[in-house]
Specification:
The complex is a heterotrimer of chains A (about 190), B (about 400) and C (about 210). Chain A is mainly α. Chain A has eight helices and no strands. Chain A has a domain of about 70 residues. Chain B has about 400 residues and is an all-alpha fold. Chain B folds into two domains: about 45 residues, no CATH class; about 300 residues, no CATH class. Chain B is built from 14 helices and two strands, in the order ααααααααββαααααα. In chain B, strands 1-2 form a two-stranded antiparallel sheet. With about 210 residues, chain C is of the alpha+beta class. In chain C, about 40% of the residues lie in helices and about 15% in strands. Chain C is built from seven helices and six strands. A three-stranded mixed sheet of chain C has the order 4-1-6. The longest helix of chain C has about 40 residues. Chain C is elongated. Chain C starts with a helix and ends in a 10-residue tail after the last helix. Classes of the chains: A mainly alpha (about 190), B mainly alpha (about 400), C alpha+beta (about 210). Chains in contact: A-B, B-C. At the A-B interface, α2, α3, α7 and α8 of A face α6, α7 and α13 of B. The complex binds iron/sulfur cluster (2 copies). One iron/sulfur cluster binds next to α3 of chain C.
Chain lengths: ~190, ~400, ~210
């Protein structure tokens, strides 16, 4: 804790603010990636290796890339429109109100009063054991869903044969890619 | 103090040469306690960077020589004896070249891209077990770490391509990302088979699981099982694509898009990209060695006197030579062929392979006579049949005929 | 089956790899500065000026007619006429170039100068090792550097040079024959004139 946490937190916050306020969409996406990395660093600092690496793998490796792809495929990256809209005061007020309510609720809940549990040392093996025993049903369900998505992607690709160029293919397979990516990740969970 | 220093140093070297555990301990304890961690870290990092950077230099030479011979040429032979100093000359050339940044480029991102590429590539070495007692960090989730840092290289390629403000760069980056995402899935799934059988995400443990020999000579490497062989081949193909090497060098296809995301880079930044590419190739081949080829283990029992890291390096260089050989043989794929191959062949094959590995795992309890052979044949058939079938559908009913060009004629 | 072709290809390249070590005949390349492939007869690089005999100044075929200078597309020939006259191959008195420069950094080896020269004075060279450290002075070739003997021309383009020589010889012979005929005709004319003078003319002489 202490200084490392402060650095990581500052980095995460600054990059998150940058992601919201920068003019250039690609810059926003890149700062979002930095935010993801900061969150992953936070997990790692808490000794949660598995979650940290999964965060990097999924969010930087897949989600950030997907966002970037989406930006590039949908419109030109130069859109110098004003970020701040006319109703921004309203927006800030609402955001602050939501934040206040949430803080109040969290502080008054029983979780805040509870004693800090002894710091667990979650090894990957423990996570795997838990996933395979206590949480096996949700895991199987998610795994099945994602495998179905992957196989669906493969089947769409398989039947996309006659006379169509890459264009069609790309459009078809881009959304399913991220899913398949996550699937690969889930398979990790499945195994460990 | 001086005496102790040298004693520690020699002890460390001796321990490294004879492959003993914890070679750094005595040497590090010479230093005052406050700087001990730094010294220890440096002792891990500096050798890795030095060994693999010189391996990079060696490989560029080997590659050019090998490609030359494959094409019935001599290859570089001017600088030094047999052209041995060619990499030095290349390096000097790169260093002295002007670093050109395009006028309309996004300067910051253009500058950051090679760094953001090189750092994760170097980080990936942190978990590879180079030798019996040589693993920088024995992490519980080592392989996950490897893939996690590997995933962030995609973003840096995008940064390079986008920030150059050049259509070829952007096209190259888009191609690179499409390719890397497509091939990352078979790459990960094929290594998941190994994780599943070894029951661990730690690379050290995966190597440990491959110890011992069948019949006293055939090592227990994963590549000698049906799923391991298929997984190894899938892994190799996918890692070729991940490291943008021929025949998957579509992102840098010189004849189509100049140099892809490298188009606007020159001088030392270009050299950094080049270095990162080769280091990535070494890292991923190192992972292949660890997962499928028994890591640092010797291929025969009596060869175990040779230090473990030598075996690791030999296997690594073997794979690199294979990559060079493939580069000298195969022409570049088209983008649609590349994606078709990934989604219609590699992904189904790797999923089937995962399934076969599960069956291999469950049939390990069989203990009737001939169970080993039966299990082997069952799994091999379960891989071979879909392979033939998928191969048919992929090339299948297409007759290779004379091609007509609609617009050219 | 899928992958067959790949294996075939790999075997082929492996054969090349091993073969190139023990069978030097496979190597198609020549190690350039030490060994050179002799230039092809039809090779051409930059123009040079042909001279006959031993003295470059005397034997230069060029008569400074400046046709090549005008025709050269990138305008890389620069000629200044001399005032001294020398006989050309047909014996006619012709002026010589005082300065004849070709900037080979500009020349595009199009051979137009060769095509247009009526005196067979400029021909294409095969020399290509012209790199210098100074891209201005050393790439501007002057008359002295450009002049090369006819024997050299025979050496690099034997067929063409022989043809040119034959043509020149024929033309010279023709010119000589013509000169002879002219001289004879002149002689005859003088003889006739003398005869005419001697004899009384029936035709009235033209007014002077
Ligand atoms: S080289 Fe030929 S065309 Fe050119 S000036 Fe001399 S005689 Fe004339
Ligand atoms: S070869 Fe062409 S460019 Fe060169 S001097 Fe002759 S006319 Fe000019």
């Amino acid at each position: 804790m202490g200084i490392t946490f402060a650095i990581i937190a500052a980095l995460t916050l600054v990059s998150a603010i940058a992601a919201m306020s920068l003019r250039n969409l690609v810059h926003c996406a890149l700062s979002l990636a930095v935010t993801f990395a900061g969150i992953a660093a936070m997990y790692l600092q808490l000794d949660a290796q598995f979650v940290g690496f999964a965060q990097i793998l999924v969010y930087i490796g897949a989600v950030a890339i997907l966002i970037v792809f989406a930006i590039l495929l949908t419109r030109s990256s130069e859109t110098p429109q004003p970020v701040i809209s006319r109703s921004w005061i309203m927006g800030i007020v609402i955001a602050l109100a939501v934040f206040g309510v949430l803080t109040k609720v969290i502080l008054s809940s029983s979780i805040a009063q509870r004693e800090l549990p002894a710091k667990p040392a979650p090894t990957v093996r423990q996570i795997g054991d838990q996933l395979m025993t206590r949480y096996v049903l949700p895991l199987e369900a998610i795994g099945l869903l994602l495998t179905a998505a992957t196989i669906g992607a493969v089947i769409i690709a398989m039947h996309d044969k006659k006379g169509r160029g890459d264009g069609g293919q790309n459009v078809n397979s881009t959304p399913s890619r991220a899913e398949a990516h996550q699937h690969a990740d889930e398979t990790h969970n499945l195994i460990t | 103090m001086i005496g102790e220093f040298f004693k520690g140093l020699f002890l460390m070297i001796w321990k490294v040469v004879t492959d003993q555990p914890d070679p750094k301990v005595e040497f590090v304890s010479v230093f005052p306690a406050t700087i001990q961690p730094i010294i220890s870290v440096l002792l891990s990092i500096v050798p890795i960077i030095m060994v693999f950077a010189s391996l990079f230099a060696l490989t560029t030479l080997l590659e050019r020589k090998g490609l030359g011979r494959i094409q019935n040429r001599l290859g570089p032979n001017r600088v030094g004896p047999f052209g041995l100093f060619q990499p030095v000359a290349d390096g000097l050339k790169m260093l002295t070249k002007e670093d050109i940044v395009p006028h309309s480029a996004d300067k910051l991102i253009h500058f950051l891209a090679p760094i953001v590429l090189l750092v994760p590539t170097l980080l990936a070495y942190a978990v590879l077990p180079f030798g019996q007692n040589m693993v920088p960090i024995d992490m519980d989730a080592g392989i996950l770490f490897f893939f996690a840092v590997g995933a962030s290289t995609e973003l840096s390629i995008f940064m390079a391509g986008w920030s150059s403000r050049n259509k070829y760069s952007l096209l190259g980056a888009m191609r690179a990302i499409a390719q890397m995402i497509s091939y990352e899935i078979p790459l990960i799934i094929s290594s998941v088979t190994v994780i599943m059988i070894a029951g661990s995400l730690s690379l050290v443990e995966i190597v440990d699981k491959q110890s011992g020999y069948h019949f006293g000579f055939l090592p227990h490497w994963n590549v000698f099982t049906p799923w391991g062989l298929a997984g190894f081949i899938i892994f190799l193909i996918a890692s070729l694509a991940e490291s943008n090497r021929s025949p998957f060098d579509i992102p840098e296809a010189e004849s189509e898009i100049i140099a892809g995301h490298l188009t606007e880079y020159s001088g030392f930044k270009y050299a950094l990209f080049f270095l990162a590419e080769y280091l990535g190739m070494f890292a991923v081949s190192g992972l292949a060695v660890t997962l499928f080829l028994g890591g640092w283990r010797a291929p025969l029992p009596f060869l175990e006197i040779v230090p473990s890291y030598i075996w690791f390096l030999l296997k690594l260089m073997g794979l690199v030579c294979l990559f060079i050989w493939i580069r000298g043989t195969l022409p570049r794929l088209r983008v649609d062929q590349l994606l078709n191959f990934a989604w219609k062949f590699m992904l189904p094959m790797s999923l089937i392979n995962l399934f076969v590995a599960a069956i291999w795992h469950f049939t390990s309890v069989w203990n009737f006579r001939g169970a080993g052979l039966g299990r082997w044949l069952l799994c091999a058939a379960m891989i071979a049949v879909p392979y033939v079938w998928l191969g048919r559908t992929l090339i299948g009913n297409k007759k290779i005929t004379h091609r007509t060009y609609r617009f050219a004629n | 089956m899928l992958g067959e072709g790949i294996i075939k290809g790999m075997v082929e390249t492996a054969k090349n790899f091993v073969g190139s070590y023990h069978d030097p005949k496979r190597l198609t390349t020549v190690e350039y500065p030490e060994n050179k492939i002799p230039a092809k007869e039809n090779a051409r690089n930059f123009p040079f000026l042909v001279f006959d005999g031993v003295d470059a100044d005397k034997g230069l075929r060029c008569v400074a007619c400046q046709i090549c200078e005008k025709e050269c597309p990138p305008k890389c020939i620069y000629i200044i006429k001399d005032t001294v006259k020398k006989p050309d191959y047909m014996g006619k008195m012709q002026i010589q170039p005082k300065i004849f420069d070709i900037d080979i950094s500009v020349c595009m080896s199009c051979q137009i100068c060769v095509e247009v020269c009526p005196f067979e004075a400029i021909k294409m060279d095969t020399q290509f090792e012209l790199s210098t450290t100074d891209r201005f002075e050393n790439l501007l070739l002057n008359k002295r550097e450009l002049a090369k003997p006819n024997e050299y021309y025979h050496k690099i383009h034997p067929t063409e040079a022989t043809e040119v020589d034959e043509r020149l010889a024929a033309e010279k012979a023709k010119a000589e024959a013509k000169a002879k005929a002219d001289a004879e005709a002149k002689a005859k004319a003088t003889v006739a004139a003398a005869a005419a003078k001697a004899a009384p003319t029936p035709v009235p002489a033209p007014a002077k």
